[in-house]
């Protein structure tokens, strides 16, 4: 690599800003187009994992004509190894609310929701108080925007935006076909912006400090900072805000326990990177010039050499089998068969070559599953099976 | 009106009777009753004018909407990867041993139900568990016994 990235600790997200009122009132004095252009020029991308440009999402929703529009904050943080959104909502909730209100102003929405996963119900009461205070301030500056909390009930798939909206409409959390995208027809079939908790906090930073400050952090195509949820075999698990674009090697130097065998980037639906590929892997969105770049919702799980990769994969597949909504066949049957398949190979009931059949199956799932869940099972499955084949067999 | 009927009526009055209110209403019943019985689901369907099959279909989709009888305290131990690596099984054994039930069962006195659940979002403080809405992290078997003793005293 031409440039060696060091880990760059940053402190924007949890920095205590006691002036959300000022930021909100100053921002909504600007023209909506100017706010959108600011966001677009910052190159902020969705921090939930998918990485859709946030400014563009707001723009598309603003341009949709409809009698009603909605803003949804996606706090259904269910990806194994991710726990940053909980921390944001308990430490700096007002930043999230401010960005939601600005989004409402820009797009013409007057109602916002925070979809909070059932596992985080303990946050609800405190969050309600902050929202009440916030409403009071919105009234004071004549901003017509209200926020409600919608509680989830324990379903990973509801983090998928269309499943989330189905759930809010009182149905099974089954993803919809896309298009139409939520920016055209979302909650109650009205144009809807769905943003991850962290994305909204970055938007707040941009409103307060300007797009340039954000843009100057990170690397090409991956601007700004990102919260990383670090767990597994590490002496310092926790939540860290780092610049995007770091090399995985540097990350492991900082967080590994000296015996790191592999790192799972992006949770169970992400990729497993073995030791020999650490130095060629950068953490950011695709498009970097050299090496492999892996996007992540922030989940970084480290495994040392005492861990069996078979057990890791087995655990992921159990997870997917249970969390698959069951709507489309490739995902429903695929997850079950992958799990049965690796167990059969391990027990010696199937030959090792059966793993190749299973890899083919994940390819099919990637092509034919309806939503990100079924499509991304292939990521962890193939990266584990290809790099740790012996561990799957013996 | 029996208690469940009036609970459901109150919840429907509070949240509304549109389809969007179905989850909050069901969550309210679970909060109070710990699970959705067939009777409650039919009653919700009647009160909100939604087909009973739709109510059943929606309820069974969500893992926190129990449709089997559950105890006063529902213990959910996280089984996802980091917790599994950091001693989830020892934790489960300790709880099973103390309550004399297996995972998925409820104690005969209807006080405790023991379940496993998917990622709770506390991987940096694994292993983690929920007792109703309360979170406990870095739970060693020893710590679990203490926590449960506390709940057992509470009547």
TrEMBL record, chain A:
- Tell me the ranges covered by the NADH-ubiquinone oxidoreductase 51kDa subunit iron-sulphur binding domain, including all copies: 310-355
Which InterPro entries is this protein grouped with?
NADH-UbQ_OxRdtase_51kDa_CS (IPR001949), Nuo51_FMN-bd (IPR011538), Nuo51_FMN-bd_sf (IPR037225), Nuop51_4Fe4S-bd (IPR019575), Nuop51_4Fe4S-bd_sf (IPR037207)
Q: In this record, what's one Pfam family?
A: NADH_4Fe-4S
Keyword terms of this UniProt record: 4Fe-4S, Iron, Iron-sulfur, Metal-binding
Alphabetically, the GO molecular function entries are: 4 iron, 4 sulfur cluster binding; FMN binding; metal ion binding; NADH dehydrogenase (ubiquinone) activity
List the SUPFAM superfamilies hit by this protein, alphabetically: Nqo1 FMN-binding domain-like, Nqo1 middle domain-like, Nqo1C-terminal domain-like
Against PANTHER family, the record matches this protein to: NADH-QUINONE OXIDOREDUCTASE SUBUNIT F
Which family does the similarity line name? Belongs to the complex I 51 kDa subunit family.
Tell me what this protein is called: NADH-quinone oxidoreductase subunit E
TrEMBL record, chain B:
- Relay the cofactor remark from the entry: Binds 1 [2Fe-2S] cluster.
Show the PROSITE patterns listed in the entry: COMPLEX1_24K (PS01099)
Any idea which GO molecular function terms this record carries? 2 iron, 2 sulfur cluster binding; metal ion binding; NADH dehydrogenase activity
Q: Where does [2Fe-2S] cluster bind?
A: 78, 83, 119, 123
Instruction: Please verify whether the record's keywords include Iron-sulfur.
Output: yes
Keywords from UniProt, A to Z, are: 2Fe-2S, Iron, Iron-sulfur, Metal-binding
Cofactor names from the entry are: [2Fe-2S] cluster
Q: What is this protein called?
A: NAD(P)H-dependent oxidoreductase subunit E
Taxonomic lineage from the root: Bacteria, Pseudomonadati, Bacteroidota, Bacteroidia, Marinilabiliales
């Amino acid at each position: 690599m031409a440039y060696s990235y060091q880990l760059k600790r940053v402190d924007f997200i949890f920095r205590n800003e006691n002036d959300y009122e000022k930021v909100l009132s100053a921002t909504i004095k600007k023209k909506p187009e100017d706010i959108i252009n600011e966001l677009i020029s910052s190159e902020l991308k969705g921090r939930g994992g998918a990485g859709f440009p946030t400014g563009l999402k707001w723009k598309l929703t603003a341009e949709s004509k409809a009698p009603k529009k909605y803003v949804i904050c996606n706090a259904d943080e269910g990806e194994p190894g991710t726990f940053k959104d909980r921390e944001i909502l308990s430490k700096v909730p007002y930043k999230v609310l401010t960005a939601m209100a600005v989004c409402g102003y820009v797009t013409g929405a007057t109602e916002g929701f925070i979809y909070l996963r059932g596992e985080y119900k303990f946050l609800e009461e405190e969050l309600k108080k902050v929202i009440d205070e916030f409403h009071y301030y919105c009234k004071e500056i004549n901003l017509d925007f209200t926020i409600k909390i919608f509680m989830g009930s324990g379903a990973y798939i509801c983090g998928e935006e269309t499943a989330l909206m189905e759930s809010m409409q009182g149905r099974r959390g089954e993803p919809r076909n896309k298009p139409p995208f939520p920016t055209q027809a979302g909650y109650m079939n009205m144009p809807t912006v769905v943003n991850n908790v962290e994305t909204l906090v970055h938007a707040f930073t941009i409103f307060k400090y300007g797009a340039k400050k954000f843009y100057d952090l990170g690397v090409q195509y991956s601007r700004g900072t990102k919260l990383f949820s670090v767990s597994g075999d590490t002496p310092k698990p926790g939540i860290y805000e780092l610049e995007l674009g770091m090399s995985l090697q540097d990350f492991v130097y900082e967080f590994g326990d000296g015996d790191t065998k592999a790192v799972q980037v992006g949770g169970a639906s992400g990729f497993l990177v073995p030791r020999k590929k650490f130095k060629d892997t950068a953490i950011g969105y695709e498009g970097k010039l050299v090496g492999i770049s892996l996007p992540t919702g922030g989940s970084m799980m480290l495994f040392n050499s005492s861990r069996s990769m078979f057990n890791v994969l087995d655990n992921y597949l159990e997870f997917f089998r249970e969390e698959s909504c069951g709507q489309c066949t490739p995902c429903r049957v695929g997850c079950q068969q992958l799990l049965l398949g690796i167990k059969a190979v391990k027990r010696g009931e199937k030959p090792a070559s059966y793993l190749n059949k299973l890899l083919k199956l994940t390819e099919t799932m990637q092509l034919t599953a309806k939503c990100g869940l079924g499509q991304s099972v292939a990521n962890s499955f193939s990266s584990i099976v290809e790099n740790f084949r012996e561990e799957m067999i013996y | 009106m029996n208690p469940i009927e009036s609970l459901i009526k109150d919840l429907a009055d509070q949240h509304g009777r549109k389809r969007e209110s179905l989850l909050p209403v069901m969550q309210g019943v679970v909060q109070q009753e710990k699970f959705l019985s067939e009777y409650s689901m039919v009653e919700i369907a009647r009160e909100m004018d939604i087909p009973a099959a739709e109510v059943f279909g929606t309820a069974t989709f969500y893992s926190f909407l129990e449709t089997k009888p559950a105890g006063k305290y529902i213990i959910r131990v996280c089984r996802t990867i980091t917790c599994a690596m950091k001693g989830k099984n020892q934790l489960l054994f300790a709880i099973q041993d103390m309550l004399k039930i297996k995972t998925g069962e409820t104690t005969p006195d209807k006080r405790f139900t023991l379940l496993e659940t998917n990622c709770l979002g506390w991987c940096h403080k694994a292993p983690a568990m929920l007792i109703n809405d309360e979170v406990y992290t870095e739970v060693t078997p020893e710590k679990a016994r203490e926590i449960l003793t506390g709940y057992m005293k509470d009547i």
